[in-house]
Amino acid sequence: MKMMRLSVRLYVFFVFTAVLVWCFAGCSGGDQKPDQQKGHQLAKKASTTDNFLSYTAALTKLPLSKFDNLGIVSTNKAFADKLPISIYKGEAIGHDSIIVHPYKIGEVAHIKAAIRLLVAQSITDSLTIGDFTRYFGDIKKEKPLIGNTETPLPVEITVDANTALKLTFNNNKKLALAHVTMVEILKYR
C-alpha cells in the first residue's frame, strides 16, 4: 500500500513539474536578445529590397505601349500591399513612398519612353547597387567623359535589347555598397 501511495505521489509530482515547465517554456516575454531583434529588422529590410527589385523587374517587362500612367496601374496594384507606391501627378508627394513617374521622351538617344522611380528613404537605406547587379546583371562599362564630380554619375544596366536601367546613387567608396536613390527604366523599342 505504501508503495502504491509513493508511486502515485511521484507520478503527480512529475506531472505537475512537467506542466510547470511546459507553461513557462511557452512564455516568450522580453527575453529576446537584441541580436534577434536586429535579425528580424534585417529580414524585413531584405524583404522590402526584394519586393522593390521584383517591382522593378515587373515594370521592365511591360511593353512600350504600357509605359504610361494607365499601363502601370495593374503592376502598382499587385505590389500595393508590399510597397508604398504613389504615381506622380504634378504635386509634391511625401518622402515615405516610392514616387513613380512615367514619361515619353521621343527620339532622344533612341529612347522612346521611361519610368522614373524615386526611391523612398526607408528603402534607400537598404537598397544598393550590388542588389541590382545580383538581380539584373552587370553594369554597362562606360568611359567617363568628365573628371571627378561631387555627385557620382548614374550607372546603367542593360536588361535586354529593348530595356535598360539607369541607377542614381549616393556617393560611396565601393560602388556595390552605394545606396540607390532613383531608378529609371528606359525603353528603346
Describe this entry's structure for a reader.
The chain is of the alpha+beta class. It has one domain. Helix content is 38%, strand content 19%. It has helices at residues 2-26, 34-60, 73-79, 121-124, 129-136, and strands spanning 85-87, 98-104, 113-118, 155-158, 163-169, 180-187. Strands 1-2-3-6-5-4 form a six-stranded mixed β-sheet, with helices on one face. Strand 2 (98-104) and strand 3 form a beta hairpin. The longest helix has 27 residues, at 34-60. 17% of the residues are buried.
Task: Summarize the structure in short.
The chain has 189 residues and is of the alpha+beta class.
Order of helices and strands: HHHEEEHHEEE
**What is the domain total for the residues?**
1
Query: Proportion of β residues?
Result: 15-25%
> Count the strands?
6
In angstroms, what is the radius of gyration? 27 Å
Q: Tell me the distance between the termini.
A: 94 Å
**Tally of alpha and pi helices:** 5
Uncertain ranges? 34-38
Biggest sheet record: 6 strands, mixed
Write the layout of secondary structure elements.
Elements: H1 2-26, H2 34-60, H3 73-79, E1 85-87, E2 98-104, E3 113-118, H4 121-124, H5 129-136, E4 155-158, E5 163-169, E6 180-187
Parallel strand pairs: 1-2
Antiparallel strand pairs: 2-3, 3-6, 4-5, 5-6
